[in-house]
Amino acid sequence: MNKERFKSTKIASVLGIIGNLFLLIIKAIIGFITNSQAMIADGFNSFLDIFSSIMTYIGNKIASKPKDDSHNFGHGKAEYIFSMLISTTMIYLSFEVLTNGVMSIFTRPNYHFSIWLIIVCIITIIVKLLLYIYTKKLSTKYNNLLIEANSKDHRNDCLLTLLTLSSVLFSMKGIYIIDSIVGIIISIWIFITAIKLFMKSYDVLMDKSIDEDTKKKVYALINSHQEIKRVVHFNSTPVGYRYQISFTIYVDGNLSTFESHAIADHLEDEIEKKIPEIYLTVIHVNPIKL
Length: 290
Fold this sequence. Notes:
Blueprint: H1 2-34, H2 37-63, H3 78-107, H4 115-142, H5 145-172, H6 177-205, H7 212-223, E1 230-239, E2 242-252, H8 257-274, E3 278-288
Parallel strand pairs: 2-3
Antiparallel strand pairs: 1-2
């Protein structure tokens, strides 16, 4: 499963680099020729997508390494470190695009309409829609934050390019201020997306506890064992995209050491087989007087 997961991430990142490099070139050429702030902002977004795909490739390569003596839980958190790098770069570029958009309102740059603006928008929407559909399926299947970040980025690009297209259509009617406004909207959109990605990465790197739904699944399995009388000290920590959990169970003190630990061993295996979000389960056993 892990090999398939890392291989799919590699393919998604390579496709993202190729697709976005193509879009960056055509957006940059047409954007600077026409001096369209919306298209230039869209071009900045494509540059960011290339950076995001490269970070996805590198992060995935590191995260795919198995555990070793120096990294007992593997290298899975590399996904979140590189996701945070992507988000901080997005925040920086969003301010750059915002500044250019605001300045263009007051300076009123010499805008030149071209039919190529419409053609580039349509090409971008098609390419990004295909990339979104592909990465969305992968992120759902493998619960991969890097692919999820790329998937959301492709989706957002489709919507943002629709805004760019609308500004181009308005310019045909002589309404040029929409071009600058769309550039500003794109910058704000990039910023909001970056903050959400940053917080999700931050939560994992700060060892945020397992979500309540998964915790309920664990307790459901625990409660299915009548031999277990009490559960305390439930703890969890993220290990890459999955979790390690530990807790203490109380069983009949009259059971032998072998019998009581057999209950814990069986439960550990059951949790790890039935709940894919769990990487490792560690159970401590205590006796209780009945």
